[in-house]
Amino acid sequence: MCSNFEPIKIHRVDWVKHHFSCDLPVGEWLGETYPTYSAPFIYSKENIVQCDLAQFGLVPHWATDKKKFGLKTYNARSETVHEKPSYRSAWRERRFGLILTERFYEPCYETGKAVRTGIYRTDGEPTAIASIWERVIDKETGEVLMSFSMLTVNADNHPLMRRFHKPGDEKRSVVVIENKNFDEWLNASHEQARHLIRLSPNGYLSSDT
């Protein structure tokens, strides 16, 4: 499970413009993102690709505590995303998006203790992680809250991602979308989405250790 990442940096504005024909959002975001923090998020609405700040940790419309709810919904298992109450509406409505990271972090226990390890694209470009999103309005404050959850898959047999998480635990990986599949993912049918929900190719990602 990924609970911490370094979001795309402002100097990548041309990269975002090239791949998505939109600008990074106006405003500031922190150098590291944890659940309930906000970061730039790519999505398509009415066939127009947009980039807005969104909260890490999906918040469905029925959540009562819309701040704390995201502390437990930052990752969604791809195998059950269609049936879990928190995620099934976003999945049903095909609200597919991308969170762009400079690197994301997982714990490596190969030394016998947890070592925070950065994972990033080998070619140095931002890593695009498949996500689902919600947009709700807080009835009490009128605030518009956009939020997302990263999709994950089993990584027991992946040469890199199987190295992370506690010994004995199931190995999981975020779903990485390659550049050539950006548009397909953002506008995917359920069948297309299932096809793209897979482990990254061997050598596509590297790590600090």
Summarize the structure in words.
By secondary structure, the protein is mainly beta. It has four helices and ten strands. The protein has a five-stranded mixed β-barrel with strand order 2-3-8-7-5. β2 (38-45) and β3 (48-56) form a beta hairpin. The two termini are 18 Å apart.
Question: What are its keywords?
Answer:
209 residues, mainly beta
Strand arrangement across the biggest beta sheet: 2-3-8-7-5
- DSSP summary: helix tally: 4
Give the beta-strand count. Answer: 10
- The average pLDDT value, as a whole number, equals 96
Percent of residues in beta strands: 25-35%
Distance between the termini: 18 Å
Question: Main beta sheet: strand number and arrangement?
Answer: 5 strands, mixed, barrel
Structure at a glance:
With 209 residues, this protein is mostly beta strands. The chain contains four helices and ten strands; from the N terminus they run βαβββαβββββααβ.
List the helices and strands and how they pair.
Blueprint: E1 5-7, H1 13-20, E2 38-45, E3 48-56, E4 75-77, H2 88-92, E5 96-108, E6 115-121, E7 127-137, E8 144-154, E9 172-174, H3 182-186, H4 190-196, E10 205-207
Parallel strand pairs: 3-8, 4-8
Antiparallel strand pairs: 1-5, 2-3, 2-5, 5-6, 5-7, 6-10, 7-8, 8-9
